[in-house]
User: Fold this.
Amino acid sequence: MIGRHVADYAVIALGGKQYRVREGERLLVDRLDHEEGATFAPTVLAIGDGGTLTDGGSVTARVEEHLLGKKIRVFTYKPKRNSRKSRGHRSRLSRVVIESLGTRG
Assistant:
């Protein structure tokens, strides 16, 4: 009989980074191309179930919202040269909720 049961955790890849996630967990990741409220299946690298780590499995995630990160201010100057620069940066982020994860078996 082939069915689904819930795994303990999964290792997924999103935006060139790897995350260890559990069901119901929220992540802040680099901005995704999906719309707010859209459900998608990220790339699953491994599933941890008990003390074993296996390939494959399934993970379902939902984009909760798109937002901007904390503003980072950078100020540089060179003393006695009247040289000053002020720059700022805000990362474009997406909040993702892990809805379900499971293995086959």
